[in-house]
Model the fold of this input.
Amino acid sequence: MTTPQVLDANSAAIIAAEDEHVAHNYHPLPVVIASGEGAWVTDVEGRRYLDLLAAYSAVNFGHSHPAILAAAREQLGRITLTSRAFHNDRLGGFAAALAELCGKDLVLPMNTGAEAVETGIKVARAWGYRVKGIPADRATVIVAGGNFHGRTTTIVGFSDDPQARDGFGPYAPGFVTVPYGDAAALEAAIDENTAAVLLEPIQGEAGVVIPPAGYLRAVREITSRHGVLMIADEIQSGLGRVGETFACDREGVVPDVYLLGKALGGGILPVSAVVANRDVLGVIRPGEHGSTFGGNPLAAAVGTRVVEMLATGEFQRRAAALGEHLETGLTELVGDGVTGIRVAGLWAGVDIDPARGTGREIAEKLLARGVLVKDTHGQTIRIAPPLVIRGTELDWAVEQLRVVLAG
Ligand SMILES: *Cc1c(COP(=O)(O)O)cnc(C)c1O
Done:
């Protein structure tokens, strides 16, 4: 496998040109990717890198998966966008397949994850007023500290990450934050105006933070007992990543509402969805919510193929087996440049000993050795390879990390 050199002139010129006209809302690693296949991407110089980020789990099935590309290509030749002003011949099949995967009745299709979250909030409020009988404009949603649910003005208002939140107020009212992983605190925060609890079953952006065993079951029990909706943001944790279809499955928990995105679009286009039973999602009436692109035939064709692939269970099994493999490798680094690891399926947060560098510095050194990872919150790197990666490739990546940490 190739070991890339320092940034060359061609890549530097492309990056400089991008910096010239692209707003600086990201701080990308200095690599210019031109193509990808499976777990590997290739830069403009022809150097290959093992992708351990998979576009934050949007590329769970790998780059250019042939079955997903085939579904997209076939649909591109027919029709791609109709708007929901009319019916299209792909949406119904997609919704049926996705509802079945989730064990629910109804699907509300959107595009991005943040839109799914916003939709979930609207559904929770409508349900709160129309079904639960909360007085007008009083509904609240309980969220967890350390959350990441997207970047809209409403969503950043209930983030406690200063980088995401500060300077973008005024913030929307109606959210109550409790510590993540503390079921008693969550129950104490519930009152008669609580419509829903919104949380990530595993917090991805926070650094793959896994709540204490039994937490999700407790949240399910508490919300059911108080007549409050449980909304699981499975946008990053769901669709195979953790070795199950959903992270909630790890505790046998079925939330009232699933929020899905990222991998649902097969790495091709943004596809998100809110999935729930009719007694909840049925509260939304024509004209109250929508999206020009939501439920478009191309998205539905791709999403249908993704659901078909997940329905076999193959990817979930791969994630579980490879995740154990990864955990074994990472465990050997604990105490030797790594201060802690958290692993759920093929998803890991790796805390870097500050004496060995920041997460960003480690990511840059891994880049130079042909491995792509992303740092989060300073000292953590997140590992979320495409689920098609091979065990030997994971071993190689862990070896590169070991070498980098050794300095
Ligand atoms: C990525 C993510 C979102 C937002 O999705 P976008 O498609 O970037 O808007 C929401 N929730 C979670 C848990 C995520 O990981």
Summary: Residues 56, 112-114, 117, 148-150, 200, 204-205, 233, 235-236, 261-262 surround pyridoxal-5'-phosphate (CB under 6 Å). The two ends are 20 Å apart (CA to CA).
